Amino acid sequence: MCGIFGCISKNGNVAPIIHEALKRLEYRGYDSVGEATLYNGKLYIKKDQGKIDEVHKIHNLDDLPGNIGIGHTRWATHGAPLKVNAHPHTDCDEQIAVVHNGIIENFSELKLELENRGHMFRSKTDTEVIAHLIEEALKSSSLSLEEAVLDAVRRLEGSYAIAVVSTKEPDKIVCARNESPLVLGLGENAVYCASDIPAFLPLTNKMVVVNDGELVVLSPEGFKIKKISDASLVTREPKIVDWTPEMAVKQGYPHFMLKEIHEQPACLRNTLRLQEHYLDLMSTFLDRAREVFLVACGTSYHACLAASYMFSKLAFLATYPVIASEFVEQHGKSVNIDSTILAVSQSGETADTLAAVNCARQRAATVLGLTNVIGSTLTRVSRVYICQQSGPEIGVAATKTFTSQLSVLAQLALRLAKKRGKVSQDEMDFLAEKLESLPDVVEKIIETQEENVKRIAKKYKDAETFFFLGRGINTATAYEGRLKLMEIAYVPAIAYPAGESKHGPISLVEKGFPVVFICPRDGTHKTMVGNIMEMKARGASIIAVVEEDDDEVKGLADDYIEVPRGIPEVLSPIPFVIPLQLLAYYMAVERGHNPDTPRNLAKSVTVK
Ligand code: F6R
């Protein structure tokens, strides 16, 4: 996730306006920043790695000349957070500048093609191909900037919101959108394009939403929207937004956590755009290792636990999920050159995870990383790393982290299974198709079940304890549901593999004790029904997360939350965790707590 902004003003220089707008978009990413303006037929650019304030201190972002310009605040997905990879990116002659939010899936092919035709690339980003494609279109025929951008974006696969300026038409910004957000702001004496409303909200509350598959030409006179597919004109009336700046940053959601729960379909779509060669490389290391440890803390550990079932069931690889703070004690003496450590950390800075990684590195083990922050310590110490692609997570409780990490880990397990010849092509195709469908499945759960979960949270808001039970891979989902509820709603809770509950914890159960069952229709279903009966017999209130046609469990439950049917077992934690995230969120709200800032916790735990 990055933030883009563009502005054409009738009243003087735009650089300070862009700078301020980027500050308001900093929540979308902050590892590098850049601005480009046009003045007297020349393109002026300032950019560097670092947060906006740091870059401004060194370069003074405000003194770029011109009344038209674009800007960008970056959350790296392709290419390290270095100056050379900071946006805007330019063509060979530095006449065109582009800012981009999204992921261009086919950039490697396009880059090769462009390089073969003599284009010189400066960065490692996917974005730079856009500038060169526009350059070609402008040079090879007498196209306008608008037509050249149309030509270029028609060649792109993936997600993008872009803003483009060119010295050839110095009074225009051309933007386009597919799957990444883009809105226009219409002021008295200026027009704006941005990733999000907060960017221009202090300047105007008159806005226009740009839809997927649309291109926009901004000029001092206003805006024009066209369909990318057939260049037909679109008419759209501006709307007035009545959000406060604080509401706008949360896109109208009361809390970041709820916004981030709702972002999961988009994040999952992003995880499906990973570059294949990184998955290949990582699966090669996993394949060669004598032993594989999956090391992480908290939610990331729960993703590792679920992943251990994926690796085992799909690729027949035994892995050891280890809580990072225990790694040195448990394996510090035995880990060695034949061991591989896959460290999973949203922040890439968690001290316990890094301590485990350091110990492993000192003993010559191979370190692989899965993180959300390119440029974090974890990416620097990993032999290979993959980005979980979910953009900044601001709510302290990890939500989109869990599902994004699982989607990446599932792809890795599938890749390894293929390498090892452990799944048939039919099965591979089936699982790949199901993985592709997960963003829609998650969207449907949120759409159809949120009100139901809110009602359940109201009903159980005064419960003193909760019990979460799952089996197989969904033991991890149960642990994650418990962690969410404990950390933000402050409800003491326990979670167990369901089969273990009768070896002790069941003694806690008395009338009305809420027990949440994660109950997909997989190989564990029959025994789960038995566990539900055991709990019911002791007076527990059963809350079941079930597949929509599971009448048997619905009939036994006091309350149930439905998930679409037919999700393969190895992928099931992704949809099944969504109701539990919502439950924790609404329980926290019902109990009067702010879910975004739970007491005693920090987003990134950098002490051991
Ligand atoms: C739970 C939560 C924490 C983190 C843990 C690891 O909601 O946010 O448990 O999951 O501190 O953080 P990362 O993934 O950054 O290493």
Could you characterize what this model shows?
- This protein has 608 residues and is of the alpha/beta class.
- It has 2 domains: 3-249, Glutamine Phosphoribosylpyrophosphate, subunit 1, domain 1; 265-590, Glucose-6-phosphate isomerase like protein, domain 1 (Rossmann fold, 3-Layer(aba) Sandwich).
- It has 19 helices and 25 strands.
- Strands 3-2-4-1-10-9-11-15 form an 8-stranded antiparallel beta sheet, with helices on one face.
- Strand 2 (32-39) and strand 3 form a beta hairpin.
- Helix 11 (324-331) runs parallel beside helix 12.
- The longest helix has 35 residues, at 425-459.
- The site of fructose -6-phosphate has 15 residues, from helix 10 and helix 16.
Beta percentage is: 15-25%
- CATH fold name of the largest domain, please? Rossmann fold
Query: How many structural domains are formed by the residues?
Result: 2
Separation of the first and last Cα atoms: 29 Å
Discrete helix count: 19
Radius of gyration: 25 Å
Question: Mind telling me the CATH superfamily name of the largest domain?
Answer: Glucose-6-phosphate isomerase like protein, domain 1
* Oligomeric assembly: single chain
Relative helix content = 25-40%
- Average of pLDDT: 94
